[in-house]
Amino acid sequence: MTTHQISLGAINLEAQNPTTLAKFWASVTGAMPSPGGNSVYLPPVGPGGFAMFFQPLTAKRPEHQASHLDLTVPWESRQAEVARLISLGAVFEWDVLDEYPHVQWTTLADVEGNLFCVAEHPPAEH
């Protein structure tokens, strides 16, 4: 049996202003931006962190966002984290609190309108 070890290398986003968008996400993740030409790289922060890469838009942004980030925070910390992200420039879109018993989340938009979610999962019952 072949074992595949695959991990997420980086999340790549095209941006109207890569530096501004990277600055927002650096505030979210705690990463130090590493600019290079017209692009900006954010390295992963800590175990389980993820890298992000921002580059200039190459085409018009689609009206429908086909994918988005789901960020996870400890149970009962979602509201405080959402408030922190809004203070950084994120925009509240909606909450989903009762649809699924295993997760609650808030959907936000970053400073360029890209949607992302902040989710919390209740502790497993023993």
TrEMBL record:
Q: Which Pfam families match?
A: Glyoxalase_6
What are the residue boundaries of the VOC domain, all occurrences included?
7-121
Identification of the protein by name:
VOC domain-containing protein
Q: Which species does the entry assign this protein to?
A: Cryobacterium roopkundense
| Taxon lineage | Bacteria, Bacillati, Actinomycetota, Actinomycetes, Micrococcales
